[in-house]
């Protein structure tokens, strides 16, 4: 299936493709267009619009599009549920929801600044979300340690 959203992605417009590809539709294709063209292009290309007001897949209340996808597709993976809180915190500037939210926002903003090609940004963003998932699923209990004796 094709999925379409606004160009110049940040948090949700990178996180949602990662979630869709990994938990909803492995063959998904993502399209970025100017905001004013999303619904016309969606009809033309038979694509599902997401993360734009007026789309089914969008923000509801204080929840972001990532949350909507998790709920709609009954995703119960505990690591994904933890990531949903982080994404929501980053995407809605509610950094108090998770300590990682502000860092995810910073990485996303920097990624958007460094890459003008939306698909190149998506490819790199997918790797960032793969790493976040691995952290949440496998290594979040791991603690950073620094042994000053190593320098002696």
TrEMBL record:
Give the source's domain of life in one word. Bacteria
Q: Where is the ChrB C-terminal domain?
A: 3-135
Report the InterPro entries cross-referenced here.
ChrB_C (IPR018634)
Which Pfam families does this UniProt record tie to the protein?
ChrB_C
This chain belongs to the protein called Chromate resistance protein
């Amino acid at each position: 299936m094709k999925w379409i959203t606004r160009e110049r992605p940040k948090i949700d417009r990178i996180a949602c493709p990662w979630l869709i590809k990994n938990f909803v539709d492995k063959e998904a294709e993502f399209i970025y267009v100017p905001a004013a063209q999303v619904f016309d292009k969606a009809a033309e290309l038979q694509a599902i619009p997401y993360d734009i007001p007026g789309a089914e897949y969008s923000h509801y209340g204080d929840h972001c599009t990532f949350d909507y996808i998790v709920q709609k597709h009954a995703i119960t993976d505990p690591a994904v549920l933890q990531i949903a809180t982080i994404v929501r915190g980053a995407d809605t500037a509610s950094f108090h929801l998770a300590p990682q939210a502000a860092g995810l926002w910073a990485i996303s903003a920097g990624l958007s600044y460094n890459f003008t090609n939306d698909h190149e940004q998506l490819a790199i963003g997918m790797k960032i979300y793969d790493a976040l998932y691995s952290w949440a699923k496998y290594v979040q209990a791991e603690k950073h340690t620094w042994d000053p004796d190593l320098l002696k």
